Amino acid sequence: MPPETSRCVRLASRACSTTTRQFHPSGFTLVELLVVIAIIGVLVGLLLPAVQSTREAARRSSCSNNTRQLALAVHGYESARRFFPPSMQLTGTLATNNGSWGIHGRILSFLEEDTQAARLDMEKAWDDGFTTGSPDPAKNWSTVRTMRVKTFACPSEINQAFRTKSGVPYVAAFNYAFNFGTWFVFDPATGRGGNGSFHPNSRFTAGRFVDGLSKTLCAAEVKAFTPYVRNTADPGSSFPENVPPSAPTEVAGLATGASAGDIKLGPTVNDCTGHTEWPDGRVHHTGFTTTFTPNTKVPYSSGGAVYDFDYNSRQEGNTAAPTYAAITSRSSHPGIVVTAMMDGSVSTIADSIDLTVWRALGTRAGGEPAGASMP
């Protein structure tokens, strides 16, 4: 074949090959695409728990920081006043409902909330000026109704909402409470308080914590919008100061005598109003007790439903009757609660902690060897 002819044949072959490639482009087959999708699905399934775990760890770290800030603010108050803050002041008009500010309100200035703290008058009720219309800017409630203190809220709390009243936002719920002791809280007839770190009219100095600041609880997590029952018959004859209930079902029995207006629970979130009033100094709002270990289920049946509830036998100062309370520390973090000790240190405590140890951590001068058993 002449060279020219051979060359033409080769060129034609290349052109044919090029044309063939143009009309038959390479790509994924359906099977290959399905395999890739399956592999991506497996990888996402493997990575998602790790991502969720990382997010929860970050939320837990933020919660720990909030708890530490509260303990440090309590110490800031002590440095300024020479005593730790009382849970509330029962003097004069402050014994009226919502009249006495709790620890959260008293430490605002030590949480860099000076501007809002300066607008509040703690000689008047925290909801002074409540109205469904335009609030009076000179009244406490005009400030409280919109206040959301970041340090008071755990990032894992699912109910990050304002409690409403008469159809308007009333006050922000919160997630950290202070240690009111084991069971007995306060007797207004004698002025004697419980064995915790705080109680009405207390003025404790560091020297009063015989067990040691590092071995006594200051604050712990609680859940916002917790169901509760208050103002029942005095339970002291069945469960006196040194003999708290040993089983959650015993508390439900104590709550049966409450009137309808003192049963604070129901089918909607806003029906369950425990830990929704951060300015209020009473134990069912801003306190917890160590009657039961963290996240213990305390059942109460009402309206065909069973609620995990708190119990306060008598609002402190409401009458001359003493106050006993089973206010359980609860957390949105699975299996644990974040706590702060009175020295400012932070601990993560498992639900499985021994009840004796948990109660020992709640007393300021019980003499129990809680430190040796700390988790």
List the helices and strands and how they pair.
Layout (H helix, E strand, L loop, with lengths): L2 H21 L6 H52 L21 H4 L7 H4 L22 H5 L17 E4 L2 E5 L3 E4 L4 E4 L4 E2 L23 E5 L6 E3 L17 H7 L8 E2 L18 H4 E2 L10 E4 L2 E4 L1 E3 L10 E4 L9 E6 L4 E5 L4 H7 L14
Parallel strand pairs: 3-9, 7-12
Antiparallel strand pairs: 1-2, 3-6, 4-5, 4-13, 6-14, 7-8, 10-11, 12-13, 14-15
Q: Keywords for this structure?
A:
375 residues, alpha+beta, 8 helices
State the gist of this model:
The chain has helices spanning 3-23, 30-81, 103-106, 114-117, 140-144, 248-254, 283-286, 355-361, and strands at residues 162-165, 168-172, 176-179, 184-187, 192-193, 217-221, 228-230, 263-264, 287-288, 299-302, 305-308, 310-312, 323-326, 336-341, 346-350. By secondary structure, it is α+β, with helices and mostly antiparallel strands. The chain has one domain (56-373).
